[in-house]
Design brief:
There is one protein chain. By secondary structure, the protein is an alpha/beta fold. An 8-stranded parallel beta barrel has the order 1-2-3-4-5-6-7-8, surrounded by 6 helices. Strand 4, helix 4 and strand 5 form a beta-alpha-beta unit. The chain is globular, with a radius of gyration of 16 Å. It starts with 6 loop residues before the first strand and ends with a helix. It binds 4-methyl-5-hydroxyethylthiazole phosphate and magnesium ion. Magnesium ion (MG) binds next to loops.
Length: 214
C-alpha cells in the first residue's frame, strides 16, 4: 500500500475550535490532502456515526482515504478505508482479523519494538511519535526524529511521523525517512486550513524530492 499524499490530516473537533468540522474537512481536501482521519474521543456514537458517514462521502468524492480513529465498529459501519489504533486500543491482530483484508490498518507506536511488532502484526502503515512536543495529546512520549531514522530500514510499509509537526519542522522528519506526516493542530487550528494544507504539502513534496535526489 502507498499513501496517496505525504500529508495525513487528523481532524479532531477539540482543535478545530467552534468551526464546522465538515467545512474544515472540505478546506483540507481543497488544499490537496488525500489522507484524512476522524478523531473524536468525546462524541457519543449516535452523533459520531453520521459524522463519520458524511466524512466518508466527502473523502470519496475527493479521492481521499478516510480512516477512523480508535473504533473498529465505526470503521466497519461506515465502510471506511481504514482504522487507526494506538497502543491502548484493540490490539492490531484482533483488528486485522475483524477488518476485511482491503481495509487499511494503521498502528501508532512509540518505540522500536512497538514499531516492529506493528509491522509483524499486519499494520499497513506504522505511525511513530510524538516526534516533537505537542499540546494536542496529554502524556505523549517524546521520541524525536531519531526514532524515524532508526526504524526506517525495518519498516517496509509506509512510515508516518506524528506529533508537533508543522511546516517549519516537517523537512527534518522527511529527511529522517518518513513517508508522510500526520498532523492535528498544524492544520485543524490554522486560521485558513486550505492554505495551511497547501503550504505544508509543498514543504513535504519538496523535502521528499530532495531526499530522493541524494
Ligand atoms: N499521537 C502522538 S502525538 C499525537 C498523537 C495523536 C498528537 C499530534 O497532534 P499535533 O497537534 O499534530 O501535535
Ligand atoms: Mg487510539
Amino acid at each position: 500500500m502507498k499513501l496517496p499524499s505525504p500529508l495525513y490530516v487528523i481532524l479532531d473537533r477539540e482543535v478545530t475550535g467552534g468551526r464546522d468540522v465538515k467545512a474544515v474537512l472540505d478546506a483540507v481536501l481543497a488544499g490537496g490532502c488525500r489522507v484524512i482521519q476522524l478523531r473524536d474521543k468525546r462524541l457519543p456514537m449516535r452523533e459520531l456515526y453520521p459524522l463519520a458517514a458524511d466524512f466518508k462521502a466527502r473523502c470519496r468524492r475527493a479521492g481521499a482515504l478516510f480512516i477512523v480513529n480508535d473504533r473498529a465498529d465505526l470503521a466497519l459501519a461506515v465502510e471506511a478505508d481504514g482504522l487507526h489504533v494506538g497502543q491502548e486500543d484493540l490490539p492490531a491482530p484482533a483488528a486485522r482479523r475483524l477488518l476485511p483484508r482491503s481495509m487499511i490498518l494503521g498502528v501508532s507506536t512509540h518505540d522500536d519494538d512497538q514499531a516492529r511488532r506493528a509491522l509483524a502484526e499486519g499494520a499497513d502503515y506504522v505511525a511513530v511519535g510524538s516526534i516533537f512536543p505537542t499540546g494536542t495529546k496529554t502524556a505523549f512520549q517524546l521520541v524525536g526524529p531519531d526514532l524515524v531514522r532508526r526504524v526506517r530500514p525495518e519498516i517496509s510499509v509506509p512510515l508516518v511521523a506524528i506529533g508537533g509537526i508543522t511546516a517549519k519542522n516537517a523537512d527534518e522528519v522527511i529527511e529522517a525517512g518518513a513517508d508522510a506526516v500526520a498532523v492535528i493542530s498544524a492544520i485543524g487550528a490554522a486560521p485558513d486550513p486550505e492554505t495551511a494544507t497547501r503550504h505544508l504539502l509543498e514543504r513535504l513534496t519538496g523535502a521528499s524530492r530532495r531526499r530522493s535526489a541524494h
